[in-house]
Specification:
Layout: H1 2-19, H2 29-91, H3 97-159
Length: 161
């Protein structure tokens, strides 16, 4: 009888242990709320990054256009000065012709130098804008990555509560 009673008691404990297996846990409201907030934060960070990238690309395009215009203006001014110098040399008296041509050559060299400096300055400004735009893009990308990491940490923290 003791054996029978021991078997029944052990069966009772076994059935009680079997009945206590946990059912799959539903997502607690705090976790769902944290996930929603995290998704919202990440979406906002991505939108901000896209806005920054678009703005930076616009600045680069504008700087390139402005540099191209300045280069064209500089070359046109140089061509005009060269034309005036050559015209002046052509109109000079025959005995002063050599002197006028030398003066025209100097004037043309000066015009080329001035145009070259303007081209370099225009390229320098455009390059500066490009570097700043690249830095802005990198910063926005870093901020997005940080927002993703923070959101993941927030969700993880809410699951442990």
């Amino acid at each position: 009888m003791n054996k029978l009673l021991a078997t029944l008691i052990s069966g009772l404990f076994a059935s009680a242990a079997f009945a206590q297996t946990t059912a799959p846990a539903a997502t607690p409201p705090a976790v769902a709320k944290a996930e929603a907030k995290a998704d919202k934060d990440v979406a906002k960070a991505k939108a901000d990054e896209a806005k920054t990238v678009t703005k930076a690309d616009g600045k680069v395009a504008k700087a390139d256009t402005k540099a191209s215009e300045k280069k064209a203006d500089a070359k046109a001014d140089a061509a005009e000065q060269k034309h005036k110098a050559m015209d002046k040399a052509a109109k000079a008296d025959p005995e002063d012709k050599m002197k006028a041509e030398a003066k025209a050559d100097k004037s043309m060299a000066k015009a080329d130098e001035k145009a070259g400096k303007k081209v370099v300055k225009a390229d320098e400004k455009a390059d500066k804008v490009k570097v700043e735009a690249k830095a802005d893009k990198a910063e926005a990308k870093t901020e997005t990555a940080a927002a993703k990491s923070k959101a993941a940490a927030d969700v993880k923290a809410s699951t442990t509560k």
